[in-house]
Amino acid sequence: MTKEGGEHYGFSLIEVILALGIFGLLAASILGMVSGNYTTNFASRDLMQATAFAQEGIEGAAAIRRQAFNLLVNGDHGLTKTNGYWELSGTSDTNGAYTRIVTIGDIYRDGTGAIVNQGDLGATLDPTSKYLSSQVTWDSIFGINNQISLDSVLTNWQSADWTQTDWSGGSGQAIWSNPTQFFADDGNIDFSTAGEIKLASSGSGGGNECGLKSWGFDVADNYNFNASDIEVVSSNAQLIG
User: Fold this and answer.
1) SS3 letters for the chain?
2) Cβ–Cβ < 8 Å for 166, 137
3) How far apart are CA 231 and CA 239, in angstroms?
């Protein structure tokens, strides 16, 4: 009778579980790194495209300002270039997944010229400046809403301003040079007195240019009154004493 002997080598169940656990941790780490890089790359790409779209909004509004400063109307706008030049259009515009809103508003300044809030003490409207905001919103690949906003100030720096208090020279001045004249009027103003402008009289004088109007109280349906305070006698209304 013979007996065969020797050592047998193998893996225990604990070793297998431990190996699988280590492999799982490594796989999860690698997957997390890949997923993180993937998400970061997409987020960076989205942010770059949104920033470029917002910057285009600033540049588009500046192009409109160069056409005419009074085209910068206060409010929320979209932009279009369908006619070959930038124009305000609607309340927003889109480019793929990105929505842009260009907001235009007034600017107020204090006595030093610094920009302040409208309600601040000493705040004065600056008619030659406009506040501009270009905001872009979009949803990420995970459905999270994102936004970016760029701000700017647009000015009508080439405008010529002056103060005129005398229009006695009359109309007919298409290009301003005479400090007492103006371009045109509709005939309803009186500018004959230097340093003064007022509505023209509609009559020839006498103090009753608007005319007088009289009417009686014969027809009761034409008026309402409190009979305890007012009485009508011979087409005349009088207080009850």
Assistant:
1) CCCCCCCCCCCCHHHHHHHHHHHHHHHHHHHHHHHHHHHHHHHHHHHHHHHHHHHHHHHHHHHHHHHCHHHCCCEEEEEECCCCCCEEECCCEEECCEEEEEEEEEEEECCCCCEECCCCCCCEEEEEEEEEEEEEEEECCCCCEEEEEEEEEEECCCCCCCCCCCCCCECCCCCCCCCCECCCCCCCEECCCCCCCEECCCCCCCCCCCCCCCCCCCCHHHCCCCCCCEEEECCEEEECC
2) no
3) 6
Q: Is 227 among the domain residues?
A: no
Cα–Cα distance, 43 to 174 (Å, whole number): 57
Give the model confidence (pLDDT) of 110-136 as tens digits: 999 999 999 999 999 999 999 999 999
Residue 60 inside a domain? The answer is yes
Q: How many domains does the chain have?
A: 1
Q: What is the pTM of this model?
A: 0.57
